[in-house]
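Sample 3 of the quickstart, ligand S-adenosylmethionine:
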Amino acid sequence: MEMKDNYGRPTTSLRISITQDCDLNCFYCHNEGCEKEDREMTADEIAKIVEIGTEFGMDKVKITGGEPLVRDDLTEIIGAISQLNIKDVSITTNGVKLGEKVEDLASAGLDRANISLDTLDSETYEKITGKPVLDKVLEGIDSALDVGLHPIKLNTLMLDGINDGEEIERLMEYSLGRGTILQLIELEKVLPENQKIYEKYHKSLDPIEEKIRKRADDVDTRWLMQARRKYLFNGGEIEIVNPMHNSEFCKYCTRLRMTSGGYLKPCLMRNDNLVDVLTPVRNGSKDGIRKAFETAINRREPYFSEEEK
Ligand code: SAM
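Result:
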């Protein structure tokens, strides 16, 4: 049974961080808004939590990290979740290890993938991530397309002075040419230590969106996904993800998060309202898990509100 929060918003998607480890070191990373934790959920524990989440109307699960592909049991996790009443199982990955594992993941029930790609230039890629592995990522994208994952989304974070000029044009061409969806993401200031990076690299998506709007065949709004606008082109799409100071984004947010240490997290931007869901799992209390979901959903509130506009 669907449960709405105190602002009338349903909670239909669960974004689960399964590890804090990552094989890249992107200088802007918000770590999914998570602070360091000293415990990690097993595959079985994740599945038990998701199962109860479905009772509250959650039917979409996104697995994230850190980097989800550094966990050896990712296939097991995907397999267990896809047995549940979930209609969409996806991952967000840097793509480095995707080529090696995507076939197994697809067989286990993975429906689709978001792959982070901020640049097509090897030097810039290394500057952003600390590793010279762009070729591996591009191979990973091709492998994901080959096994038929659909849609594949490319997550491109707009960084002032790094990829905001011709690079974005190249990425659009690359993405539209492959039938993937390009998601242009605004840099967010989530953790206090990201403040300086935000000041230096944040760039509004408005000017690029204006250009895209003029060229697109049509525009659509994903009301059930933070009211994101997507621009349709013959054979492709570009989606705009601009959360900062955007009350519409929050008003239409349907997402609950889970940290790798097993805390339900009502909002990316906050850590003062987490709810421990792993302890009731370890105590074998289904009612305790239900209670944790109820509490977390009741703690959901729009971070950016209309008054702030
Ligand atoms: N390692 C995986 C990956 O690269 O996709 C999953 C974790 S990563 C934190 C998930 C997404 O968050 C990536 O697409 C990344 O670009 C985005 N991201 C990271 N830091 C961000 C920030 N400060 N603002 C906005 N998006 C950010």
